[in-house]
């Protein structure tokens, strides 16, 4: 019985995690104009120091952007870029970049 309850709970958590970031890719494309300066206009960075964002998993992008914004990841270049972003902005950006091919 405990095993069944665990599996049900684990399934519910996985479904919540996969649907947590439900951003609007079209809105994200508009919001990504500033990001393009370093990460490339199509999410492919022209510089080895900055990561490609195109094709990254949506949940990963959400987690990383929130970590930069909330101070859990420190980076002097990213901090001022993400400071004004709302959760909805982050969801939209993540939806946009995850929709792009690598």
β-strand number? 0
> Biggest sheet: strands, sense, closure?
none
Briefly note the structural class of the backbone. Answer: mainly alpha
Rg to the nearest angstrom? 16 Å
What count of domains describes the coordinates?
1
- Beta-strand proportion: under 5%
Mean pLDDT: 85
Give the N-terminus to C-terminus distance in angstroms.
Answer: 44 Å
Q: Say which CATH homologous superfamily is assigned.
A: Cytochrome c-like domain
Succession of helices and strands: HHHHHH
Question: How is the topology of this model organized?
Answer:
Layout: H1 2-19, H2 25-31, H3 36-39, H4 58-69, H5 78-82, H6 87-99
Helix pairs in contact: 2-6, 4-6
